[in-house]
Write a structure and sequence with these properties.
Pfam families: AAA_31 (PF13614). The protein is an alpha/beta fold and 276 residues long. The chain has 10 helices and 8 strands. An 8-stranded mixed β-sheet has the order 3-4-2-5-1-6-7-8, sandwiched between helices. The structure holds adenosine-5'-diphosphate and magnesium ion. The site of adenosine-5'-diphosphate has 15 residues, from helix 1 and helix 9.
Length: 276
């Protein structure tokens, strides 16, 4: 019998810290292992949707969350079956996507009862078709879309750049997460897999200020800080521009990043190591 899928959310309450890049990287290396991967884009900017090679989707996460007040609510599990589409060309066929559109931003202020629970039900509806989901979560402290992801997810990864924003985004994310994981909270079983130092400057660009932020993260988050560091490699931008998985990108930098994403994947989902 198939096990329930893993559900990993990439969360920080600041933008530009590498959430979407980490999500795309994890999707790529998990797919290369032959797993059936689901990418879920919850950021109205739709960066992950673009990167996964999808333009103008017919259905999106907006259809999963939106409830027409004039009609009886539809089951998110059924909508998800129609909205879940293969990633674009360039991506392996075992990657599928719940894409996002701009309009999904309206859901942030949507007062529909129970809307935050619809994603959890949607992913449940896809449980037999997917081994692991990766959720790209928008940066908005205390927001509803973040909340819906923290209800659906089983694991959280927090990317943090060695900057003020990186540190703040991680700190605020931890506060939001605790609302859900506290005893009696909406998702007590949710685990923070760790804080990943992200877009870290390379040797000749690495200054004392970066070391100071790194020390500060280690001080504040202790054992939650992953030993693995995601460095700044220009090939990352090539992946975004070309809607290409890092596993298909050429050159030494791509190989290094793949290895790093694999380490983060195994740290988060250690049981996958046996499959590799
Ligand atoms: N390891 C990396 N090396 C170089 N550039 C990176 C790396 N990770 C992310 N970036 C770039 O930094 C910018 C912000 O990353 P992104 O993943 O979009 O962050 P977020 O989703 O948190 O807003 C993007 O242009 C992205 O391509
Ligand atoms: Mg993003």
């Amino acid at each position: 019998m198939a096990e329930d899928p893993d559900i990993v959310a990439e969360v920080s309450e600041k933008g530009g810290v590498g959430k979407t890049s980490l999500t795309a990287g994890l999707i790529a290396v998990a797919a290369e292992m032959g797993l059936r991967v689901g990418g879920v884009d919850l950021d109205p900017r739709s960066t992950l949707t673009d990167e996964l090679g999808i333009t103008d989707p017919v259905l999106s996460v907006n259809d999963i969350y939106y409830v027409d007040p004039e009609k009886p609510p539809r089951d998110p599990a059924l909508i998800a079956r129609d909205a879940f589409v293969p990633a674009g060309k360039g991506w392996p066929s075992n990657v599928r996507v719940l894409p996002c559109i701009r309009k999904f931003g309206n859901r942030e202020t949507d007062a529909t009862t129970g809307m935050e629970f619809r994603l959890k039900r949607a992913l449940w509806g896809l449980r037999e078709e997917v081994d692991v989901f990766f959720l790209d979560v928008p940066p908005r402290a205390g927001g509803k879309l973040v909340g819906s992801a923290l209800i659906a997810a089983k694991k959280v990864l927090i990317p943090a750049t060695l900057t003020d924003d990186g540190h703040d985004g991680a700190t605020e994310a931890m506060t939001s997460i605790e609302h859900y994981t506290n005893p009696g909270g909406l998702n007590e079983g949710l685990k923070v897999s760790g804080v990943v130092r992200s877009i870290v400057p390379r040797e000749n660009e690495y200054r004392q200020i970066h070391q100071d932020w790194s020390d500060r993260l280690v001080e504040d988050f202790g054992d939650l800080i992953l030993p693995t560091i995601i460095r700044n490699y220009a090939i990352r931008e090539v992946c975004r521009t070309g809607s290409m998985p890092i596993t298909a990108a050429p050159g030494r930098e791509a190989k290094l990043l793949q290895e790093v994403y694999r380490e983060v994947l195994f740290h988060t989902l250690p049981h996958l190591k046996e499959k590799s």
